[in-house]
Every structure is written in C-alpha cells, then in structure tokens.
Amino acid sequence: MERLPSSKSIFTFLFLGLCIGLILDKTDSLLGINFYNFFSFIGLLFINSLKMIVIPLIMSSLIYNISSFSSANEISNIGAKAVIFYLITSFFAIIIGITVVNIIQPGILNGEGAAKLLGLGLNNNIDNIITNKENYSFEGFLLTIFSGNIFTSIANGNMLFIILFSLIFGLSIRYSSSKSVDTIKNFWEGLYLIFLKIMNYILVFTPYAVFCLVAKSAIDFDSQSYVILMNFFITVIVGLLIHMLIFYPLVLYFFKRNIISHFKGMSSAILFAFSSSSSVATIPVTTKCLIDKLKFKKEKVNFIIPIGATINMDGTALFECVAVIFIAQLYGVDLSYIDQFLVLSLALITSVGVAGIPSASFVAIVVILSTVGLPLEAVGIILGIDRVLDMLRTSVNVFGDSCCVSVVAK
Which of 357, 177, 326 is nearest to 238 (CA)? Predict the structure, then answer.
C-alpha cells in the first residue's frame, strides 16, 4: 500500500482511457452494464473518496504544522512570499493570455466577427451561471469567508473559511503557554498522520480512476462543437502551454532550481490534475509528490499547497481573459487598451474571488462581460469544450502551486 503508482502507469492508463473513450459511445453496454455510466460512477467514487479526506487533511496539516513552526516570523515570511508569488504569476498568466488572443484572433474570420456564423442564441445552460453572477459581490465574497458557523462552512466545503480558521487555530496553539495545549497539538498531529495513511490507501487506485475519468470525457467528445471553436481551443492551449512550459521553467531557472527534476517529480500530480479537473482533489497527490519525490519540508508543503489550491488560479485567469476577448472579437468589438487593462484587473480579482462558486470560471467571465458591456449569450458556446480546457488549466494551477513551494523553499 505504501508504494504508490508511478507516473508511467498513470500515463498508460490515461492513454488507454482516451483510446477506449473514443471508440465507445454513451449507449454501448456489456451484460446490461452501460460503459459510460460505469466509468462515470468509478471516477466519481474516486474523486469523492479524495474529497472525503481533503478537508480533515488540510485542517489537521495546517493546524499541526503552524503550531509547530519555530517562530512567528517563519510563518509570516512563508505566507507573504507565497501570496506574492501567486499574485505575480497570475498577473503574467493574464498578460500571456491577452497577448496570445490578440495575435491569433480566434473570434475573427475573414476580417470580421464570426458571431453570425456560430448562430449565437441564449443557452439555457448559463442560466445558473448568470444567477450566481447576480449573487456575487465583494461583500458577499467576504461574508462567504466569515460565514459565522464553523460546522456549516466545513460541511459546505468553504475552503477559504477552512484555511482561515485553521490558520487562526494553529496560531492560537502556537502562542498558548499552557501545558494542556500540548494534548491538543498531539491530537491534531495524530489526526494528520491518520489521514495521510488513508490518503495512501486511496491513491493506490489512481491509475484505474484516471482511466475511467478520461474514458468518460472522451465519450463526451462532440466533434461538431470542437470544429467550430477550434481556433479558440488552440488559443487557450497555446497560452496555457506557454505559461506552464516557458514561464514557470524560467521562474525555476531564475531561482536556480532543477527544472527537469521538478517536472519529473510532479508528473503524477499533473496527470491526476488533468484527469480530475480539481485542484482541491489533487492536494493529496501534490503534497505526496513534493514531500516524497522532491524532498521538500512537509511543514512548508502542507502550509503552502492548501493556500495555493484556493487562491492560485493562473490557468483560470488566463482562460477568463482569452474567453472575454474572444467573445469581443466574435461581435466585432475592438476593446481599447483601457478595456483590456480592466479585463486584466477583473480577471486577477475574480479568479480568486469566485473560486468557491459553481461554474467559477464562467461566473467570472459573466462578471467581466457585464463590466465591459458585452453580450452574455456567447458564454453558452464555450461550455461545450470547457471540460477539456478545465483539465488543462487545472494542471497549470497545480504545477504553479508546486513551483511556489520550490521558490519559497529557495
């Protein structure tokens, strides 16, 4: 159980899942068992198993590790450096996205906007997104964090509240001088070690879960929608690849870190993030790679990674900018530099601010579109290919978290 699957086995099962998914369709079955429903069930079961341990693992690791830091300066220095790193990398991700979409111009065909060719009409799938957008405000965002009920926030998976509460709880233990507090600290240490053990048991089944998750996504493949939006699809991929394969390696090189070793060490986490589309669900895999393969101190890893999984949304911010400018191009709207700077600023804020809301990226896109006065209906056409792009931007987010750990450790 302690020997976790290698990145080679994960990649092999990912490739097999892709091949099987492209062959099958939603109606294929064997002995009365529908393949699509089976893949969906197994994938969901595995993701839910990880989500089962994520909250107690984050709480116990943060509380225990913060209470174990030797000094308050060490905590504040690591926290400040991590947040600054995430903000700077998100800013550069947005710059890359804006640059790429302006060069490729995916929404323009034969010198004019391609909105009519796509037959844009309001998609009912975005009703919930628009509703979420109407409920989103800065005040509401803060009230979500400070919800006032610990148990309700934990039950609802309110990650920002959980991290904030864990930070305060850990600091309170750290600065309590009573001997009885040692019992509380030992309790959280024991809880942390127990959930690490449970995590190891769950991660043994990673290759099979990856196979099912990718096979399900491949069965969902809709060639018609991909052909229509291929330019947009390519633009987002180019932007994400530049950020992940050029920008982050340059950051690692600047801080004199071994780029190849870092990629190798994080390969399992990147592949799992790609198949699961969830930074939070990937936290156990990310921490395992950083601690066991790359040999970073567990105190720093367990402090930085939960924060990064919540506020580091480089891929999401890049996607938001490309999507908004793509929609502007569809309608033949030439956004000025001031408008694009506004898009940049809003993407930087909303990529963090709406992270806990369903359809988070699309809520942010609707917020930005409303601000710059563009129609909301075009959001519906992007929904069809969001699954694949979500897989890619989640991989970028997770790799960015690992780079933060490497840079802060340096």
Answer: 326
Q: Please check whether residue 289 lies inside any domain of the structure.
A: yes
Angle between helices 7-23 and 259-276 (to 10 degrees): 40
What's the CATH number where 173 sits? 1.10.3860.10
From residue 388, alpha-carbon distances to 33, 184, 295, 313 in Å are 26, 44, 31, 16
Task: Report pLDDT digits (tens) over 283-310.
Answer: 888 888 888 888 888 878 887 887 777 6
Q: What angle do CA 91, 97, 98 make, to 5 degrees?
A: 90
311's CB contacts (< 8 A; 6+ apart) are 83, 86, 352, 355
Please check whether residue 213 lies inside any domain of the structure. Answer: yes
Domain hosting 112: range is: 7-409
Name the one residue in this structure whose structure tokens are 């903000």.
87
- Element of type H or E holding 108: strand 108-109
Residue 241 inside a domain? The answer is yes
Residue range 353-393, pLDDT digits in tens: 555 444 456 666 766 776 666 776 666 667 656 667 777 88
**Are the C-beta atoms of 171 and 68 separated by less than 8 Å?**
no
pLDDT, tens digit (0-9, with 9 covering 90-100), for 159-212: 667 777 887 888 888 778 777 888 888 888 888 888 878 877 877 787 888 788
Q: What is the pLDDT of residue 350?
A: 64
Residue 2 belongs to some domain of the structure: no
Q: What angle do CA 317, 320, 346 make, to 5 degrees?
A: 70
Number of helices (H), then strands (E), belonging to the chain: the values are 20, 4
- Per the structure, how many domains does the chain have? 1
β-bridge pairing 33-34 and 108-109: unpaired
Collapse the DSSP code of 34 into the 3-class scheme (helix H, G, I; strand E, B; otherwise coil) and give the result. strand
Q: What is the pTM of this model?
A: 0.67
